[in-house]
Specification:
Blueprint: E1 2-4, H1 11-24, E2 31-35, E3 40-43, H2 49-52, H3 55-61, E4 64-67, E5 75-77, E6 81-89, H4 98-111, E7 116-119, E8 123-126, E9 129-138, E10 142-150, H5 155-161, E11 169-171, H6 194-206, H7 218-232, H8 235-238, E12 245-253, E13 256-265, E14 268-276, H9 285-291, H10 298-306, H11 311-314, H12 319-323
Parallel strand pairs: 1-2, 3-4
Antiparallel strand pairs: 2-6, 3-5, 6-10, 7-8, 8-9, 9-10, 11-12, 12-13, 13-14
Helix pairs in contact: 1-7, 4-6
């Protein structure tokens, strides 16, 4: 068992570390990671990103979004959150056994005097409130188990960052389940620093054995940075990997009502349909065709619409008014 120190707080880098260790380091060994992200939403592998995040809010706050390897629901990370990862050979005892991997974490929390327990299929609770969510990714030979620990997370930001209005979107993506959550610090008689908590966790993970470390080499870090840049930070991975879904929105403007219905596949508009009682003399099918194939992103949609003589299709309805039809939030 080897502990890999990692003080990087960039979410793309940290996701790349997990994948790199999983795929490239000695498959016969067990690796432990304790790490943090700056403010980030981490969505599950099979989720529709746009359903899980309040995009306007996260853009305003500079909160990043990243997709992880494992399934499950979306979570919010900040510097009040500590994450743990176990990567080891897949055996009968570790095959989808969430409780197996959470045992040392629960023991560590109990060592702090907390009434910690494993709850439901992937949570750790204290006094029946969720303080940790867990997820897994595996191949035929390896398993990656990771989880969060809510230590002193800003719940006001969490609530807004993960708040979306689902009435405009219909998809088969895995939806997040909201739970009653709490910070570990709220249950402690004495405050604890992140470094103290890390050392406390390592003590319970390694037991009576000395903590052995594996320090990532410059060559390791170079390959991790490449993976972060070319996979985890890309639009195709974060947004384009979302499952198929339908988007629908309609509004009445002074010059008439317009309704858009979009089929989205891999983050791009596969098909667009526009309806309404607006006044235009050109066939709206031309607009629908021009929207087909572009990314479902405001800048892409605005660029496409601004290249058309919109008055010929929508009368006096402006570009800014039309753009409100493509907003997920609000």
């Amino acid at each position: 068992m080897l502990y890999i120190p990692n003080d990087n707080r960039d979410c793309y880098y940290n996701m790349a570390v997990e994948e790199y260790v999983f795929n490239e380091l000695d498959p016969a060994k067990t690796y432990i990671l304790l790490w943090q992200n700056d403010p980030t939403i981490v969505v599950g592998r099979f989720q529709n990103t746009i359903e899980e995040v309040n995009k306007d809010f996260i853009l305003e706050r500079g909160i990043k979004v990243v997709r992880r390897l494992s399934g499950g629901g979306a979570v919010y990370h900040d510097r009040g959150n500590l994450n743990f990862t176990f990567i080891e050979p897949r055996t009968l005892g570790t095959d989808t056994a969430f409780e197996f991997f959470t045992q040392p974490v629960i023991a560590a929390l109990k060592g702090l005097g907390l009434d910690a327990a494993f709850s439901s299929r992937n949570d750790i609770t204290v006094d029946n409130k969720k303080v940790s969510g867990n997820a897994q990714y595996m191949t035929s030979t390896r398993v990656l188990h990771h989880g969060t620990l809510l230590v002193d997370t800003d719940f006001s930001i969490l609530a807004q960052a993960l708040r979306v209005k689902p009435d405009k979107i219909a998809s088969k993506g895995i939806k997040s389940v909201r739970s009653r959550v709490a910070n570990i610090c709220d249950f402690l008689d004495q405050p604890i620093t992140m470094e103290q908590l890390k050392q406390h966790l390592l003590k319970h993970i390694f037991g009576n054995r000395p903590v052995q470390t594996y320090n990532l080499s410059p060559a390791d870090k170079k390959r991790i940075r490449w993976l972060a840049q070319h996979k985890y930070s890309t639009w195709d991975w974060v947004w384009g990997r979302s499952p198929k879904y339908n988007f629908q929105n309609g509004k009445r403007f002074d010059a008439g009502r317009v309704e858009v219905r979009l089929d989205i596949h891999r983050g791009r508009i596969a098909q667009a349909k526009i309806y309404g009682d607006f006044f235009g003399h050109k066939n709206i099918a031309e607009v629908e065709q021009r929207l087909g194939g572009i990314r479902f992103e405001p800048e892409d949609i605005r660029s496409t619409l601004s290249s058309l003589k919109l008055a010929e299709f929508f009368g006096p309805i402006s570009l800014d008014e039309l753009m409100t039809l493509f907003q997920v939030a609000g």
